[in-house]
């Protein structure tokens, strides 16, 4: 279930994430260590020793340079064949964290196929000894080291990560306040009764669930969710669901079944309190109206498993979009970070078809106008182009440096792909492509590049087997040197 979207249309316009920052990869952010050196740019950092880790997962975290006074925590769970690095690079949860001041945890699997365990007997029970328990240990590890708001812990994920999201919400309703699941299945739907995979086997696959053949009553689904934490009678997390009507990997019937389950678990009416159509999306809210209704179900007509991931909408559902970052608090103990390795991509998904990341969020706040581009002196810019690639796709990171003596206000970067590549997703800029020609325009928040300063943008793309790098980049009409 790798995030991948076809670039079949001749002209593709990809809208960037809302908010972001040029994140330099450093060994550890200054906010991360109790005896920290002078401030460094926040980065993705691996943390070890976070618990007994019965699932054998790896833990990564992103702590922004400026945390809210009592920050929330968002757990972002990847898809099959994915990784923490892929979610960090390909979705905007870290960029929003830099602006809103919350901490992001990225669990990463360490087994063939890279799917999370949502099928074994161990995974079906709270503290049963598999991936859900490992994820909660990561949360508690962060809570022990930072003064966080324990009432604002959230989880989101895509595909395998969305399945994990719903299962974890059922098992740990006292830990998580809400979750947002992009193309998942109801909690326990994927159960196979098998042994946990650990780090040596693939996670189990339930074809009946995947193909939408597990159809139960709301009461039956609710009972299955409640059975993961017997005896619990406290408050239940709010749930946001996203699914494509043409999902070929996890049939859209799972969306219907999940609505049954969560309305029953929450004890709310199965009749929507409000329903509206937004483009190709039908949004139904249950148990209340407004951005933070108890249950929100979004069905995207004509969309496959290649589902758009609207990070901004998830963060708004969590209620984290109104945070006001202040100076970073000092953690109470020093975690054990290790440098983040170069993101790698599995070339051959081994469990399921390959989904794609979404190029366009479906609901975003109105951006502020971009400044009018200023001219750039020829040769007064440089561009560094770095790629990680696999058999038919790649991720590119582009660093634009203003080498002139004056600031650039508003910028447009253009280049031509020599091998028929297609951009499928972009962040930190607005990208449009027509044939081989690509144009990237600054986002509202990074339009000014100071003298000697840099901005970093990125995108995912597809290729047919040859992925030759562009030879020339032009910034506001001026040719840049290769950095």
From TrEMBL:
SUPFAM superfamilies assigned: alpha/beta-Hydrolases (SSF53474), Carbohydrate-binding domain (SSF49384)
Protein name per Swiss-Prot or TrEMBL: PHB depolymerase family esterase
Signal peptide interval: 1-41
Entry-linked Pfam families: CBM_2, Esterase_PHB
Protein keywords: Carbohydrate metabolism, Cellulose degradation, Glycoprotein, Glycosidase, Hydrolase, Polysaccharide degradation, Secreted, Signal
UniProt KW Secreted keyword: yes
Residues passing through the membrane, by range: none
Start-end of Pro residues biased regions: 332-352
Domain CBM2, chain residue ranges per copy: 374-483
């Amino acid at each position: 279930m790798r995030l991948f979207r076809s670039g079949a249309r001749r002209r593709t316009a990809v809208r960037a994430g809302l908010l972001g920052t040029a994140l330099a990869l450093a060994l550890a952010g200054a906010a991360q260590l109790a005896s920290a050196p002078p401030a460094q740019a926040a980065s993705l950092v691996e943390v070890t020793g976070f618990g007994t880790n019965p699932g054998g997962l790896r833990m990564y975290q992103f702590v922004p340079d400026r945390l809210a006074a009592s920050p929330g925590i968002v757990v972002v769970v990847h898809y099959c064949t994915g990784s923490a690095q892929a979610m960090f690079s390909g979705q905007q949860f870290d960029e929003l964290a830099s602006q809103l001041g919350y901490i992001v945890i990225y669990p990463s699997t360490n087994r063939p196929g890279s799917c999370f365990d949502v099928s074994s007997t161990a995974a079906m029970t709270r503290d049963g000894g598999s991936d859900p328990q490992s994820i909660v240990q990561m949360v508690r590890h962060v809570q022990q080291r930072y003064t966080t708001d324990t009432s604002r812990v959230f989880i989101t994920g895509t595909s395998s990560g969305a399945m994990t999201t719903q299962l974890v919400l059922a098992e740990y309703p006292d830990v998580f306040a809400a979750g947002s699941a992009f193309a998942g299945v109801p909690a326990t739907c994927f159960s196979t009764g098998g042994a946990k995979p650990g780090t040596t086997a693939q996670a189990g696959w339930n074809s009946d669930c995947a193909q939408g053949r597990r159809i139960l009553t709301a009461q039956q689904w609710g009972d299955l969710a409640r059975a993961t934490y017997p005896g619990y009678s406290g408050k239940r997390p709010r749930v946001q669901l996203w699914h494509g009507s043409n999902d070929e990997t996890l049939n859209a019937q799972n969306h219907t079944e999940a609505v049954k389950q969560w309305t029953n678990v929450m004890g709310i009416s199965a009749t929507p309190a409000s329903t509206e159509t937004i483009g190709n999306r039908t949004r139904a809210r249950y148990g209340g109206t407004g951005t933070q209704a108890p249950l929100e179900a979004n069905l995207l007509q004509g969309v496959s498993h290649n589902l758009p991931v609207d990070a901004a909408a998830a963060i708004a559902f969590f209620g984290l979009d109104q945070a006001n970052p202040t100076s970073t608090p000092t953690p109470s103990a020093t975690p054990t970070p290790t440098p983040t390795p170069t993101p790698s991509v599995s070339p051959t998904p081994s469990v399921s078809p390959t989904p794609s990341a979404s190029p366009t969020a479906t609901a975003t706040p109105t951006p502020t106008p971009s400044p009018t581009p200023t001219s750039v002196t020829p040769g007064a810019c440089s561009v560094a182009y770095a790629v990680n690639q696999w058999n038919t796709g790649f991720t590119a990171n582009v660093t634009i440096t203003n080498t002139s003596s004056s600031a650039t206000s508003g910028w447009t970067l253009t280049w031509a792909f020599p091998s028929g590549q297609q951009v499928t997703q972009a962040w930190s800029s607005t990208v449009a492509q027509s044939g081989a020609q690509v144009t990237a325009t600054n986002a509202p928040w990074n339009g000014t590049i100071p003298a000697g300063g840099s901005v970093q943008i990125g995108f995912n793309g597809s290729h047919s087997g040859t992925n030759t790098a562009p030879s020339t980049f032009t910034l506001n009409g001026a040719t840049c040197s290769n950095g």
